[in-house]
Request: fold
Amino acid sequence: MSRGLALGVLATGALMTILDGSIVTIAMPAIQRDLDFTPTSLSWVVNAYLIAFGSLLLLAGRLGDLLGRRAMFLAGTALFTAASALAGVAGSPAVLVAARFLQGVGSAAATAVSLGILVTLFPGTAERARAIALFSFTGAAGAAIGQVAGGLITDAFGWHWIFLINLPIGLVTIALAARTLPADRGIGLAAGADVAGALLVTAGLVTGIYAVVTIERYGATSARTLGLGALAVALLAGFVLRQATARRPLMPLRILRSRGVAVANVVQVLTVAATFAFQVLVTLYLQQVLGYDATRTGLALLPAAVTIGAVSLGVSARLNGRFGERAVLVAGLVLLAAMFALLARVPADGSYLVDVLPVMLLAAGFGLVLPALTALGMSAARAEDAGLASGLFNTTQQLGMALGVAVLSTLAAARTADRVAHGDDRATALTSGFHLAFAVGAGLVVVAVVLAYALPRPRVTAGAAPAENADALAA
Reply:
């Protein structure tokens, strides 16, 4: 078995799901026209996927530990591929939304265990850092390809093909995964068959993510949003209490005793909330204020994705090995804070070369942040908990994405409406709304910088064993 080929399989699986997500956002207007979605119901093309994906990651990660991570990856990829076929032939809104939900379930099953498989394939510190850098690179590659290909595929072949393109990728991934990923039997359901805990955490995450993704429709302070938020908090608190007392917990709380793991996941929520909202809001700025079409928007965003990918693949592993993940994380966060500071000043009559391109280049900071956070988030995972740690890390990533888009988009829309009411023209009002959202994004990144200093400083020693790093991070 070639570990390099196995890593390629894992990266391809991640690429497929990220590619799907970014392509869909570009194709939304065409989907609305063809299937007669109402403006309100159209958001469920995205929301159905996010709810299923985000709420099942933690459970899927633990089931991978119990039943076998390779089996979970294969099952998830197969379901995602089949659901993509269903979405590609959908002739009604109900069928497409149902297919998107199934895509989310399959993606959760495959994604949740990917990092767990990776850290068992590459136990050495240096080789693991290189593998994580390559895996992180696929995120930027998927975003870049999706933004550009979404407009091209939709215009040339129709929106159906943004889903059908997953079929050959999925089938090849399944065939190669069955041959290259290491066979593991799992530790058995008896080691963590906590049905009550599974119900509590899944219900809590579904409720919480649903509350977040509907903020723009109902308002952040509405009784519906606050009630659902309170219910989600109560369910998740019940889950934590259950894990502290259950004989065979679904999520052993020992995984959160590592300061590195706990803080890395909190920093990830803040950072991803800001950066994912950046992608969405910059897209809106380019299209609604500067008047770009879908293809031109994708090309305008390409420098950010290419820069992020080049940094994460080219230099992040070496920097992490030399200076330690905490120092690299802080440096990347500082670059992102500068990026948001510039975005908070973009004019309504902005120029791409002067006002937007410098921002795209500063996005390189995310290429430093993500590999460092991934290493820290997986730092204290035991072999039997690797899937759980992977699921937890991916769950906080999805929560950050959902929170960032919902909250910052709502703030931007509220400021825009206020400026329109005061007589501003639409472009000026929209830009003012984006300024507020980007300023809040900068604040989130600054808080992440402060928290990053609470991370333990690892001992950076050439050739250090993984256990040494884990001990340092758990200090």
Notes: The domain at 1-193 is CATH 1.20.1250.20 (Growth Hormone; Chain: A;). The chain has three domains: 1-193, 194-247, 254-475. The longest helix spans residues 386-421.
